[in-house]
Amino acid sequence: MTTTIDKGTAPGALTHLDALEAESVHIFREVAGEFEKPVILFSGGKDSIVMLHLARKAFWPAQVPFALLHVDTGHNFPEVIEYRDNVVAEHHLRLHVANVQEFIDNGRLRERPDGTRNPLQTVPLLEAIESHRFDAVFGGGRRDEEKARAKERVFSLRDEFGAWDPRRQRPELWQLYNGRHRVGEHVRVFPISNWTELDVWQYIEREKIALPRIYFSHEREVFERNGMWLSPGEWGGPRADEAVVRRVVRYRTVGDMSCTGAVDSPAATVADVIAEIAVSRLTERGATRADDKMSEAAMEDRKREGYF
Amino acid sequence: MSGTSEISPTAGAAVDDRVGLLRLATAGSVDDGKSTLVGRLLHDSKSVLSDQLEAVTRVSNERGQEEADLALLTDGLRAEREQGITIDVAYRYFATARRRFILADTPGHVQYTRNMVTGASTAELAVVLVDARNGVVEQTRRHAAVAALLRVPHVVLAVNKMDLVDYSEERFAEVANTFTAYAKALGVPDVRSIPVSALRGDNVVDPSSHMDWFSGPTLLEYLETVPVETDPTQEPARFPVQYVLRPQSDDEYRDYRGYAGQIASGVFHEDDEVVVLPSGQRTTIAGIDRLGVPVRQARQGESVTLRLADDVDVSRGDLIAPIDEAPTPTQDVEATVCHVADRPLRTGDRVLLKHTTRTVKAIVKDIAYRLDLDAPIDGELGHEQHPTELRANDIARVVLRTAQPLALDDYAVGRRTGSFLLIDEADGSTLTAGMAGAAFAAPGRCSG
């Protein structure tokens, strides 16, 4: 367990990281107290890694009382899958995997012409929620990521189709989270809603949390598509007209390889990354996510269908 | 190449991880320019990044507007952009070197009063916006009343569109005096007025060159410096038990039994004599673990685990408090409520009541009166006695009877242990937000 320095109890406000941490822990414990079968969505990205770290602190010295669920697009970075499996083994967690590839193989999903599988995740996710009867699903979504996410509640009720209706959200008052739902409905829970990208990195630094190494500067073969550096892979890149080059890059987000772009960066340590994003003029998603650029309401539309 | 991190030495705010956090809410009537103000605050504090601004500029140009419409930064939903209004509370984040801010951006439409209540429930400061030309209108009084009801400790009146009244000092003073008198009469402890033009950027982040007569801080400067830290040693200690931790493992924690929760108010120390409510059992705090680290004391806002000296029966929903300043559990709750659901609430309704970590059955015994926030006379609000039902956005006094006793504080004593929700038992929807005890604070009284 990571330790923090005891700052004593001098009067005054908590630091912003302590306040955010205490709030997230409170959310995890509320879910453990009120739901039958919660699960943590775990992608191996920094937000879900921080989420898992917070869950471990919330229930220390007991085990995290939730399993993990990974929606595997089949186009993951190998470093991330390796990280996922190590974390699961190290902390004696249970892992469920929902495979997009299986759904494509049995004809229930069809590959998109652009090769992007990110939007395809919704169907396997919803089926996993239904078949395992998960009633609360933790996601690492942050409100600072995107305009539609800024409207998201910490406890977000989803109907029997997994759909989000922004006009029918429950008001969320004080720290009184209402997790009541009917049979067939479930609640998406976002314990790090109030964190920003910078908070996440500062917390990673403070808590000395290990991350998949693709978050740090490395030389990689990439090619340019739609103004982003994408990694060549089985998912269908590069095309004949796209030239592969070697560049020193890192990833700001980790998702499906087909739509997650790398950024040119010399940042090799957490401190370097913090210095870099503190002065970046691009948002994390703007810099690295092709799927959010599809339309002005791309995220809202996906969330309405059951995306997290 | 948009995939490149563009580095600009002046942009962004490298926030020290030791800075504090301020939660604030905004409120304003339709067309007072609230979205523009929030957009300006984000933009001028360099919290809007170039890809977001590009998107806003592109959409503004497509609509035939020459300049980027900063309001588009905050209206995130399709319906909001289509209608040009804000429908729902959104949360925004920005930071300066001095503070981190979580801003609850609440809509101004009269039918969305519940949204202002939502935003104000967690806010330490509320920004109420008025149009300098119109001054204090009904909706402004409603916003002040909601801030007072929710006991938001600090209220800032932003007198906007000063450019449209020739930056007139007299006009500003007139509006500010009317508002301050009203808010003080309702018991808002700290009121500050700032003349701004959100559109032109006057006094939002940068001082205005058009209003030399104003010597106060800009809005952002005030947000950065207003003291919101309260002294937790001056408040009663309250610990709602969230979850019982019993690892039952084979290691050193085999016999560990801890009560996890977030301290609602005050300070707990090792060896404090405490009572578990509502059962009334007494014991001593044997140890405090703060997320894995043993500490001798812990204070408001911290999520910790308490270990108790005796093997008492404690479960989720109980409240741990010092024996000499514990609340008296009650089944009769008198409270001010804001009805937030479209379905009405009627006398005789059976509902669930969620207070801290405890949910109990409750019955609505009486709706004593509905407050009329729009027609105040010298700070006294109008009352409608015994309405037959409450509709969405109504604020009223109710009497409830609960199936089990609740360790409830007055909302004036603690926002966290004095607040509750009424929930529809059938479909789980949130019906009503409640605040126990007297409706309005006595003037000049402050509570965190």
Question: How would you describe what is shown here?
Answer:
The complex is a heterodimer of chains A (about 300) and B (about 450). By secondary structure, chain A is α/β, with parallel strands linked by helices. Chain A has two domains: about 15-200 and about 295-305, HUPs (Rossmann fold, 3-Layer(aba) Sandwich), CATH 3.40.50.620; about 210-295, no CATH class. Chain A has nine helices and ten strands. Chain A has helices spanning about 15-35, 45-60, 80-90, 100-105, 120-130, 195-205, 270-280, 285-290, 300-305; strands at about 40, 65-70, 95-100, 135-140, 155-160, 185-190, 220-225, 230, 245-250, 260-265. In chain A, helix 2 (about 45-60) links the parallel strand 1 (about 40) and strand 2. The longest helix of chain A is centred in the N-terminal third of the chain and has 19 residues, at about 15-35. Chain A is globular and about 55 Å long. Chain A starts with 15 loop residues before the first helix and ends with a helix. Mean pLDDT of chain B is about 85; it is low at about 1-15 and about 445-448. Chain B contains seven helices and 25 strands. Chain B is an alpha+beta fold and about 450 residues long. Chain B has three domains: about 20-225, Rossmann fold, CATH 3.40.50.300; about 235-320, Elongation Factor Tu (Ef-tu), domain 3; about 330-435, Translation factors (Elongation Factor Tu (Ef-tu), domain 3, Beta Barrel). The longest helix of chain B is centred in the middle third of the chain and has 17 residues, at about 170-185. Classes of the chains: A alpha/beta (about 300), B alpha+beta (about 450). Chain B: This is sulfate adenylyltransferase. Chain B: GO terms for molecular function: ATP binding; GTP binding; GTPase activity; sulfate adenylyltransferase (ATP) activity. Chain B: It is an enzyme of class 2 (transferase).
